[in-house]
Design goal:
This protein has 164 residues and is mostly helical. The chain contains five helices and no strands. It is 70% helix and 0% strand.
């Protein structure tokens, strides 16, 4: 029963919304805006559009002439691909150096930690903190190097397949 009453109420409300005519709604809104504002607003209709269309000269040129842009020279994709292959190899060599240093430092850190666990050293080893800081710095440097390389390639228009 409640569902039936809800559906009937919904139908009545929707019918009332559809019964509103658009011109009357526009007149009420215009009157409300004029009452709120000291300066009455201007409403544009279809007749205004036709009047402005008739005024416009169809043969008139734009006020600022368009400057023809010289076409960009064609790209030599083969030469660019070879260039980026060399750049990728250079980049990979730099990353490999950083990775080698990382592996060496991580190995030394693990060695120091294992000695400490074996109670060979009873005191705190300050080198562990230094090694951890160095490893963190190298990882950040590797990340910055990767980001700079990718950004440079993107800005210069290198295709992603050339960077693999």
């Amino acid at each position: 029963m409640k569902l039936a009453l809800f559906l009937i109420g919904l139908t009545v409300v929707s019918a009332a919304v559809y019964a509103m005519d658009l011109p009357a709604l526009a007149r009420r809104e215009r009157a409300r805006r004029n009452a709120v504002s000291a300066k009455p607003g201007r409403a544009f209709g279809d007749d205004d559009l036709e009047r402005y269309e008739r005024r416009r000269d169809p043969d008139a040129r734009p006020a600022v002439p368009a400057v023809p842009r010289a076409p960009a020279p064609p790209r030599d994709l083969t030469r660019e691909r070879v260039y980026w292959r060399k750049e990728v190899e250079q980049h990979q060599r730099e990353v490999a150096k950083i990775n080698a240093n990382l592996r060496r430092l991580e190995w030394r850190l693990n060695e120091k930690r294992s000695r400490r666990r074996n109670r060979e050293w009873l005191a705190e080893d300050p080198a562990i903190g230094l090694l951890e800081d160095s490893i963190r710095a190298l990882r950040e440097e590797r990340q910055r190097l990767e980001e700079r390389f990718r950004e440079r390639a993107r800005k210069e228009g290198a295709f992603p397949g050339w960077l693999r």
